[in-house]
Amino acid sequence: MALQPSGVFFENYSHDKALIKTKYQWLSLAIFGIFLLLVPFLFGPRIIAVANIMIIMAVVAVGLQITTGYAGQINLGQAAFMGVGAYTAGLVATQFSLPFWISIPLGGVAAAAFGYIFGLSAVRIKGFYLALTTIAAQFIFHFAILNLPTSWFGGSNGLTLEPASLFGFEFKTDSSFYYLALIICTVMVIGAFGIVRSRYGRAFVAVRDDDVASSMMGINVVATKASAFLVGAFFAGIGGGLWAYYVRFVSVDQFTLFNSVWFVAMIIVGGSGSIVGALIGVFLIRLINELVTSIGPVVSEAFPFIGGDIVFAAMNIILGGVICLFVIYEPKGLMYRWNIMKTSYRIWPFPH
Amino acid sequence: MDHAIGDSPGAVKPVVLEANNLTLRFGGVTALNGVSLTILDDELLAVIGPNGAGKTSLLNSLCGFYQPQEGRIRFQGKDVIGQAPHQIAGDGLIRTFQGTHLFSGMTVLDNIMVGRHVHMKTGLLKSFCYYPWAHKEELEHREFVEEIIDFLEIEAIRHSIVGSLGYGLRKRVDLARALAMEPKALLMDEPMAGMNTEEKEDLARFILDIREAQKIPVVIVEHDMGVIMDIADRIAVLDFGSKIGEGTPEEIQKNEAVINAYLGGH
Fold first, then answer.
1. Residues A319-336: tens digit of each pLDDT
2. Three-state SS for B29?
3. Using a CB-CB distance cutoff of 8 angstroms, which residues of chain A are in contact with residue B85?
4. What's the pLDDT score for residue B99?
5. How high is the ipTM of this complex?
6. How many domains does chain B have?
7. Nearest C-alpha of chain A: how many angstroms from B114?
8. How far is A194 from chain B (nearest CA, A)?
């Protein structure tokens, strides 16, 4: 934990426990909030589309942060959990024409149930083996969707949705959907902060740091690991539901192992064990992703001998390189560095 | 079930923890061989013995981490063997660790708050909302934890990350975390190991204070004979997995078998 700014003292536990402790922090949060609200007015349609994707991914990455960053359970199936949420939301919306404010939470619940089953396997296995099991989640998801009757989930044709609507207003445009996604994402992020700073969050970290000692402290390690998956998958499901209503088309190739790996990359870059870190990771990885997609065609036009195929390959190489660099030079992620900088600024001119 | 101990005339103390004829084997190695031990209410029992005598194995069996092949352990009249460690801890049989098994990525405060886990009730949904339920519960338990922090004199480090602390302080945080669970019996595995004389004296004072304030039985597994002879009510001596002596510190100092196995060796 970073040091508090000089001159800040707490007079009650409630204040000590608060996330936002000084009025400057309130001020910067308010400015950031206003900026987020103004995004659809300040930028063009492309940026708004990118922002929408970022917000949806932020919900999913925050979930993965809880499973992997806090509870220490490696999960390479987050995209599959997201897919379960997207398909469930899509199914109940098309078949039973339920409104989005029921179908998105239902997507979350379905993903949570799916995640919980895989969480139970974390009880007996750790590390690499657990990673393999979660990859299995990914393949089971693909296999099930493609092989179940087409009338259920649409098979390889996918599902097509009507736009989300509330009191007759349809979230058809990117700008209107932006606000819907922003509200849901804000609720989910606040919820994530609630979970990690209360009883369950501490149990997650305890199990990550030392599972023998945590069982001796009366923590049910089995249930805690499984609920870490449950929570993470619930967030993924909500993100999946949002995705379904944003793209209005759901298909299996939107939720591949590749996507799961990007979510893990976001956690690594942002810093594991920090909700804000997950948000920063999403922003940076998507930013690099978008930059490569925009610069790629320009490059292949300027140097025709490279060929257009190189763009997709370059994206993976560059992102893979970014992950490698982070694992080598900044394994604890950007939030860790940021906290060190903040602390050293606050105690300057003393070294420690 | 009731036993009286010799040096407190008239007082009949109830048995809190009772181990009967424990035998624990790891493959061909017999770590414990028919060990029986009775821990009475409000007494300080020390378990001593040379390296490899089975002290830590005994402690691990008592708190449910090892499952002995033979014998029976009862805590407050309830069978321990067969229960999961977290259930036993939930019943109030709490231990501290040899070395430290703290959660090194958390602050001191959060480590001790983990000790309150069994006493907290907030579920996932209420945690997600946080205000007001989870927040209220956090503050209530924070007050309890602050009292322990005050008692063990670790106020200054409450917001430090445990991984950055020295060994003596970590041991104290380990004790604080155990106390936060409101133990009905406290098992301590080599609390003095690796400490200097001053830290040992501090810790011995804390252990005596805990007994004084909470009236709970404390079992200490320890190497340091000086400290043990000073603070223990009763001492049990293990050697090669068997109990070779039991009694007050004076009796143990005169016990031939003990002197041969342990004290004579030094």
1. 889 889 998 998 889 999
2. strand
3. 215-216
4. 78
5. 0.89
6. 1
7. 6
8. 5
